[in-house]
Amino acid sequence: MSEKCAIWQSPTLSAHSDGGPWLYDSPRGGGRYSITGSASETVRSLSNKQKSYLTTWLVEQRRLGVAEPTVTTDEVSRFKNGVPRSIVARRDSLLKAILDHSSGLGETVDYSGPKLPYILAETESLQMMEVSALVSFCKSDRLLSEPFKGQVALTFDGHSRLEELSLRSSSATQAFVAMWFGSEVAAAYREGIEPAIIEAGYKPMRIDQKEHNNKIDDEIIAEIRRSRFLVADFTCGLMESGGTLTAIPRGGVYYEAGFAQGLGIPVIWCCREDHIGHVHFDTRQFNHITWKTPEELRGKLRNRIGAVLGDGPFKV
């Protein structure tokens, strides 16, 4: 039996298998996870930075209610070209970690002691120096106090920030849809994306269907901020050039997905199967829902929303 974390080769609290995927309880992995045999082999090819992206995914899955997320070869391959989280998102994750590891109001947490592996995992950090930098940022913003070296406590402003994040997450009822508005994908929205979001218990928001008097860019940013998650479909128009089909990039979809990610808002990536090869290299590593028909998109998207976010407040 292996007693080391399959991802980080670090000490674990437990490790066992009942003939299926190995189950680990790994501080450096942020907690419990399972991993298939083939993934255990391929994860070794990841750099430490890529492993930190995978670990962030594990942490987020557990926060969404998946007690033991499973790492497969598909998940490993997603993070070979991973994208780092924003500093603000990492700072907020540090606040969440301090709250999780403190036993009560005003309690200090020794982030440099036994809790360090968990905090490294939860803040997408590789070493103590990065955690110390995040602590400094929090202290500058009066979100944390450090009464003793290496020991921090949430301040009133820190608790207020976490309450704001929690309220934003729980009260947001809409899903912003970023996609090409062409007639070729009209059915994909009408028969696929829109009903999938509604069936999951959320309200779809497509900016071209909203009446407003403001600048369109301002409205897009405002509606993304109000959203619980964003569905981005990268199906694009194609034109023939020199005997080959060339994509007509949908820059707005990339911008809106990137803006949501920067705010820490989950993004669900979609693309029609025959267009996936035209998705930009920088985002192709994300786990896209590929679809052939609107009906297939509807089913896959409904399942993905349920798995990643859970049912919304309007679920019947």
Top keywords for this entry?
alpha/beta, 12 helices, 4-stranded mixed sheet, globular, 42% helix, 5-stranded parallel sheet, 316 residues
Description:
With 316 residues, the chain is an alpha/beta fold. It has 12 helices and 14 strands. The strands form 4 sheets. A 5-stranded parallel beta sheet has the order 9-8-10-13-14. A 4-stranded mixed beta sheet has the order 1-2-3-4. Helix 11 (281-284) links the parallel strand 13 (267-272) and strand 14 (289-291). Helix 8 packs parallel to helix 12 (294-308). The longest helix is centred in the N-terminal third of the chain and has 16 residues, at 48-63. The mean pLDDT is 87.
